Task: structure prediction
Amino acid sequence: MSLANKNILLGVTGGIAAYKSAELVRELVQAGAQVRVVMTEKAKAFVTPLTFQALSGAPVASDEFDAPQAEHGMDHITLARWADAVLIAPTSANTIAKLTHGGADDLLSTLCLVTRAPIALAPAMNQAMWSHPATRRNCETLKKRGILLFGPASGKQACGDVGEGRMFEAHQLLLSLDHLFHTGELDGLNVLITAGPTREPIDPVRYISNRSSGRMGYALAEAARDAGASVELVSGPVDLRAGEGIHCVPVNTAEEMLQAVRRHVDHQQIFISCAAVADYRPVARQPDKIKKLHADLSLELTRNPDIVAEVARQPRRPFVVGFAAETREPEKYALQKLERKQLDMIACNNVADPQCGFDSEENALEVYWPGGHHSLEQDRKPKIARGLIRLIAERYASTHKPGNVTVLKKVKDRNQNS
Result:
């Protein structure tokens, strides 16, 4: 299940099927997703907002100028940017018509015009309404815009009729939503990623390290997995857990990270060096704690191995992606590193910006490769990771011509539908 750590915005419109949405929220939360619920006024006649608040653990939004919503900093723009996917379940015939014509007279319809996240609808209505030519025409229009339809199913309806129009059950919607994040851009490929800091011991209680939470590397591992890759993650010490299906190798020092990379790199097609490896380590680790006996203390340091450069030097190297965290002239130093280490691609972030990079949930990257450049504007790290993986898939496909037909087609199809 790839819904862990995904932000799912669930819209609930008026209809008896709204009771199924409560079960859907429960299953999404159990799958590890973060869920925010937006209800239309008519939806409240079927299920109370308190039900969804209790199940999601977050306030329910309904009116565009709702005070609790504003209090939590979740206006329609913020919610739209927050979402990794928008699912409206149930979706009434009226909501389908409103979305078709670009209506924006409530919070939910406004969000759908603002968000860049994929939108999916779970229709739920009487079978005659579903089969009406106006509804069918509206659905075709929405599908041409890239909006997905999950369902409806056939069966007995609340009014006693039998036919198409029943909302999918919660487990069906969960699977459909999960499939939305499986892009297939890296199907059949092996990807090795390093993440987090390294710690170089001074004595048993002190070490030299770099600032790194590991969030970017772990987000890349999940994005690569969702893209169909088999992922190995070599991680320095962080307070994170690798996602389902990701094989994690924990290490502490740069030397340990190098050895782990050497053990796993031979069968990899892509290597992403996202770890913040300490450039230097003490020449000698003291066996006992150094006592505070003198006003000054000198440490003799020696350079650590350059892991990404070693991988890039291999005769049968994978596609190598490096990272550059810079505080000034980021483009200059990133391009120098790209050329000097003979990388296929480099992702650079300006860590002088306190809103991005270290100790932040967000990031922004300038991505360079020989003859090319792309900006990934500031956003949540999981979204940035998915954008970077898409770029990597495109570049890998274009530079590996003999076996890239399937991969390149999937990348192009994905971009046309997004």
Summary: The longest strand covers residues 372-380. Residues 381-399 form the longest helix (19 residues). The two ends are 21 Å apart (CA to CA).
